[in-house]
Amino acid sequence: xKNTTNSIRLVSLLLIGFQSxxxxxxxxxxxxxxxxxxxxxxxxxxxxxxxxGTPPSDAIVLFDGKNKSAWVDMNGNPTKWIVKEGALECVxxxxxxxxxxxxxxxxxxxxxxxxxxxxxxxxGRGNSGVFFGLGQYxxxxxxxxxNTTYADGLAGSLYGQYPPLVNACKAPGEWxxxxxxxxxxxxxxxxxxxxxxxxxxxxxxxxxQYHSExxxxxxxxxxxxxxxxxxxxPLAFQDHGNPVxxxxxxxxxxxxxxxxxxYLSESKLDELAGVWNRGHRTIEITxxxxxxxxxxxxxxxxxxYATSEDTFFAKTTDVIVHFKEERMIEISxxx
Length: 335
Ligand code: MG
Prior knowledge:
Elements: H1 2-20, E1 60-63, E2 71-73, E3 82-84, E4 87-89, E5 97-103, E6 106-113, E7 128-132, E8 137-141, E9 176-183, E10 186-187, E11 193-195, E12 198-203, E13 206-213, E14 233-237, E15 245-253, E16 261-262, H2 266-272, E17 274-278, E18 281-287, E19 293-297, E20 300-306, E21 311-314, E22 319-323, E23 329-333
Antiparallel strand pairs: 1-15, 2-5, 3-4, 4-15, 5-14, 5-16, 6-9, 6-15, 7-8, 7-14, 9-12, 10-11, 12-13, 17-18, 18-19, 19-20, 20-21, 21-22, 22-23
Magnesium ion (MG) binds next to strand 7 and strand 8.
């Protein structure tokens, strides 16, 4: 018995030894008074029943019950989804909607309600979805209250990949919440996957996805591999033919502060592509993948990301491009 106790002590000491040799490389000393304090925010209020709560003061509000201007159809044109009684409601057959702004790592809060009047079965009952990565990675929205379907298609599933840990669905018509932590996948400059996407999610406050690693885009029947894409892309809601409603939608960007990025409409991007006048010279702008533009400067091909309707920037070098009136372009370097 004594030997057993000693062995436990020895193992504990060894474990402590290993722990003290941990690889965590702290930037600050323990209790360093020079370490900056985190920002102070107002945390907002939780929603209770039909009464919508309020977002934290540092959140980007994507839908406040009235204004749908943060949302467009998948081509970047105004959406046909309607605002009714404080909710953004899917109009069947009008298509998915996406945000104008793009997001990478983030905390997303979404409230949704499936139709009170129950129609259809399995995947046909109150189906919608919350997507990251411009429609690539879906966390399922479905009426799963006394409705049977396959496990990896339940509400809160990462569709076709991971069932939720539990089915925490409320009755049809009732407001439900998703609080989702999304880690965007990372790709190298040559397009190889460096790290996959991860999702942690709570449904009505209950953990349903715990750091689930996506194998690639979520899809029906198959599990396709990743496709190289920018870290930040729009969020989207699915039109699956059911009038599912959304309210109190807000997002908080995580990680280092960076410029806001937008995914402009296809028609606007087409308009910006072409030849522009730069003083007495010209420069050609072309379309890139996923809402980007491209240009060649100093022999370098640069990928340009929109930070507003008329301003783009490169991430690999300090170049900012301003599109002006009368087909004039201003390129500033080292701003
Ligand atoms: Mg769906």
